[in-house]
Amino acid sequence: MNNDLILLGHGSGGNLSHQLLEELLIPTLSGEGMAQRNDAALLELAGQRLAFSTDSYVVEPLFFPGGCIGDLAVNGTVNDLAMMGATPLWLSCAMIIEEGFSRQKLAEVATAMRVAADLAGVKIVTGDTKVVPRGKADGLFINTSGIGVIRHDLRIDGTRARPGDRIIVSGTIGDHGIAVMAAREGLELESGVRSDSAPLNGLVADLLAAGGDTVHVLRDPTRGGVATTVKEIALQSGVDVTLDEASLPLTAGVKGVCSILGLDPLYVANEGKLLAFVAPERAVELLAMVRNHPLGKDAAIIGEVTKIGTGKVRMLTSVGGFRGVEMLAGEQLPRIC
Amino acid sequence: MNNDLILLGHGSGGNLSHQLLEELLIPTLSGEGMAQRNDAALLELAGQRLAFSTDSYVVEPLFFPGGCIGDLAVNGTVNDLAMMGATPLWLSCAMIIEEGFSRQKLAEVATAMRVAADLAGVKIVTGDTKVVPRGKADGLFINTSGIGVIRHDLRIDGTRARPGDRIIVSGTIGDHGIAVMAAREGLELESGVRSDSAPLNGLVADLLAAGGDTVHVLRDPTRGGVATTVKEIALQSGVDVTLDEASLPLTAGVKGVCSILGLDPLYVANEGKLLAFVAPERAVELLAMVRNHPLGKDAAIIGEVTKIGTGKVRMLTSVGGFRGVEMLAGEQLPRIC
Question: Which domain holds residue A143?
Answer without folding.
Answer: 8-149
